[in-house]
Amino acid sequence: MPSPSSNTSDSYDIAFRFLLTVFAIVVPLAHVAWLSGNITAYLTGTAWAPYQPTAALLHPDKLWPAAGETSLLISTRIVPIAVLLALGAAVGIVWARHQGRGGREKMVTGMAKPRDIEPLMAKAITDKARSLRPSLKNAKRIDGDDTGILLGNLQDSKHEVRMGYEDVAVAIMAPRSGKTTSLAIPSTLNAPGPVLLTSNKAAGDAYTATIDARARVGQVWSMDPQQIAHATRAMWWNPLADAKTLDGAVRLAGHFLAASVDASQQGDFWSKAGSNILSQLFLAAALDERPITDVTQWLAFPADRTPLDVLRDHGFTAVAAQLKGTVEGPPETRDGIYETARQYAAALLNSEIAAWVTPQAGVAEFRPPEFATSTDTLYLLSKDGGGGASALIAACADSVMRAATAQAERAGGRLDPPMLAILDEAANVCKISDLPDLYSHLGSRGIIPVTILQSYRQGQKVWGDAGMDSLWSASTIKVIGSGIDDPDFADKLSRLIGDHDVETTSTSHSQSGKSTSVSMRQERILPADAIRALPKGTALCFATGMRAAMLDLRPWYLEPGTAELSAASARASKAITARAVTKHAPTQGDYGTAA
């Protein structure tokens, strides 16, 4: 039971607060009444009253005896109350906004401030660009897009955050969280050098939003074996150009393996054996300068001695012996291995797909070494789960990055301007098995990969636990968008962001009165549930050696001057629709002849 002294203290406290509230209302009301009454007196030509706010509120007729009753009612009653209500409403709005910002600031207390991520800010990133790119060394003014890729603004500020042209990035963003509109499209539009972009969509996506703008700065190449954009076949690429060595042939076969089998199954006997047969046949076809489709014929007839003879003629006797041992081995084993290889290369049986990787009369050949020194754009399109078709997409992307690496070494170590590789939907359409290993040196060559995934587990499925951990660790920039529903990954991110000190105030009552104590405790800066609930349009940025930052994303369609880009995107989308309608339009033969 509360003591009598405690009840008395509480009563005094309530009375004091009541008097304070009355004072806070009456004092400004009286002053507004006095000021409003004098303004009315001045306008009506009556005498100005002395400073007596209390009289103005209680006895205005004595303060302005010559004024009319109506004017006094309006000036000393209605106007002060209206002004006070308006002032209260304004204060309420400001307070609400302050509380809203305060709640947001509270959520990100302990996150990076500008000084914490200074290497990603304008001055530092510009100085870094001068040292990385000889072409900018003596430039008086450098455009921001020449210094790095815009990731967004530091939350609630105008400070732009960019990754430099020696960084390598992985972005984990759920569908419709801004991965394309805020990362893939702006990066492609503003890239100073060649751009490689993979995607599994065309209409209304990065392809249509950027193709017109990129065509103005260089040639546009579109590899669309599954006709996602229904693009005219204006190019072909030879996947065997890099398969004239055993290592190159093994890499090419590895892409077919990765496109067909998850990382957890790639080590079993049949998968490895089928991949080995493919690599041996790819090597033979490349050495004999045959089209890749000849491999499907050899797979259909294991007894064909042509690949054996080619390998021996070019000095690959050990490879020929291994192929011969498989062909002449137990029929059950041989048939199982060849059937596995046939499944991996099944896409090459499709003439529409094969046409993109075999010589075509009157069609330009895409050459990766030439692309690396250009300002061209290569769009690699494939459907989710495209099997062998996605293997060709991955092989082409890999070939481009390897050619760019060789060119960088010839140019003194780095490409200038750098090459951007936006691997959107990488886990679906561009499964490069050793991509985590490539990350360790691509950035130092001026080749900037940005691998975009929908979830961390999606990467684990493609590269395995160790491979995805390697990719995550090798990435100098990590962008995490909204929609993270994996509790383990969200908790991992929460632990990476860290803890901060929170002040806790506690109040206790006793017979001697009320006492207050203040203590400090550790609390997660962003708990897992807050990471899961990140609002759309925001993202977390983890940069090597820096505090985690909260970013406001910058969608391309909200930037100044995008009306023309939007119109071009709409035209490109309509063109895709028109091509699809034309392609699938029924012919008279589909309906037969009329009776």
TrEMBL record:
SUPFAM superfamilies for this protein: P-loop containing nucleoside triphosphate hydrolases
Biased composition (Low complexity): 504-519
InterPro entries found in the cross-reference section: P-loop_NTPase (IPR027417), T4SS-coupling_protein (IPR051539), TraG-D_C (IPR032689)
Chain ranges passing through the membrane: 12-34, 78-96
Compartments where found: Cell membrane
Region span, Disordered: 502-521
Origin: domain of life: Bacteria
Classification lineage: Bacteria, Bacillati, Actinomycetota, Actinomycetes, Kitasatosporales
Gene3D superfamilies linked to this entry: P-loop containing nucleotide triphosphate hydrolases (3.40.50.300)
Stretches assigned to the TraD/TraG TraM recognition site domain: 418-536
Predominant localisation class: membrane
Membrane topology: Multi-pass membrane protein
Name this polypeptide is given: TraM recognition domain-containing protein
Keyword annotations from UniProtKB, A to Z: Cell membrane, Membrane, Transmembrane, Transmembrane helix
